[in-house]
Amino acid sequence: MAMSQLKTTIGHGVDDIPSTPGKFKPEKSSPFFFNRVRWYTSLSKLTLWFFLSLCLLLFLFFASPSSSPPRRHLNGGAWGGPDWERRVRLSARVRATNKAGHTVLVTGAAGFVGTHVSMALRRRGDGVLGLDNFNDYYDPSLKRARQKLLERSGIFVVEGDINDEALLKKLFDVVAFTHVMHLAAQAGVRYAMKNPKSYINSNIAGLVNLLEVCKSAVPQPAIVWASSSSVYGLNSKVPFSENDRTDQPASLYAATKKAGEEITHTYNHIYGLSITGLRFFTVYGPWGRPDMAYFFFTKDMLKRKQITVFEGPNHSTVARDFTYIDDIVKGCLGALDTAKKSTGTGGKKKGPAQYRIFNLGNTSPVSVNDLVSILEKHLKVKANKKIMLLPRNGDVQFTHANITLAERELGYKPSTDLHTGLKKFVRWYLSYYSGSKKKTSCSWKLDLQWACYGQDRFFKIYRPEKI
Ligand SMILES: O=C(O)[C@H]1O[C@H](OP(=O)(O)OP(=O)(O)OC[C@H]2O[C@@H](n3ccc(=O)[nH]c3=O)[C@H](O)[C@@H]2O)[C@H](O)[C@@H](O)[C@H]1O
Q: Where are the bilayer-spanning segments (predicted)?
């Protein structure tokens, strides 16, 4: 059919369609009759095929196994469905040989402390389910590497946010957690100047969301959570004791942790949730956080980059009660083991519930200058230091923990000094970053030789000057 003829035929057809198709009487003698019928036939065929395809698509959608129950998507992750629930249950299952084991939900499980605590719990046979939103506050690939480590130990890390109420409720529907180890938080004291809302979102809103779900859970879990040494703020009395004032925070981070202590107290008071807050003192070690000074000093020193070392007014010392991760883990496990059951049911308190706060520090502060000297020894690199007056952007000049209470109640006894702890950290750092840089850059070659042949050989080849 010629194009002009087709246009004419269609033009006629559209105009001629009667409002009541049944009343349509074909005019056999019309020269346009056959074209018109063919056009109507193909239109109805098209409609029929479209309708059938739609039915098929709808059928496939509703009949597919993943459509019931629904899967939810978060930050690229997904949750829900029978397979997911099976993994959640399996991960949270207490080992048969550990009759008194806990069933623990660890929030922030792919974080530094979260990973170590989860592994330690798993090693002794507790059931552990991880939760982490894998945000990009620092390199998420490190969090993914920690996740792999956890998965190798049979720990499933659910990808999701503590602000997702539906997800938290689902987790408590699937597993009757006896404990929650709440470590998910927005960390870092200086970053609060850049992104204040992230602190409110995680450390306040997220905490409240978690407590809301825990208060309604049956049974209610006991909660152990990470507060911070930063709540002591600008206090000058040392060492810091749990009953010292905590009303002079120097950073928004500190303020949100302090708020967390008050908020958890409220939930303890009203709903009978068993609460233990742990004030961590500058935790460091293998698999640590790249935003912390000991970590980025190491990185920069190896690259021969300048590092900024803070000092107080009149060249006074800035110091921290640096605490090694293994000691912190022992403190966390001690807190979980001594936590009493929550006393509420159905969101109602049935009796007074345990409320505790402990310092988990090392009790021997070390100046940042000494921290750098120790790193120089382990790395065999002379630091290129720029000394700067401690900026007023969240830092406090010193921290020092009194740990008498934790010693007595939790059996907490830190045993790793900074020299030993940093040695372990440096060993991990070198092996981790030599392994993960494989074939990506020429600097990998340097690191690999270091890892393969040891530090001496590495420095014999590459160190530009003798230290
Ligand atoms: O105990 C806590 O509750 C907190 O500990 C940690 O905070 P901080 O003790 O401040 O650790 P971190 O930043 O490593 O600085 C260490 C030292 O290096 C100094 N510092 C820092 C940076 C720099 O460029 N130069 C420098 O001298 C700096 O002045 C400081 O004296 C956690 O990050 C925080 O999330 C929280 O958990």
A: 46-64
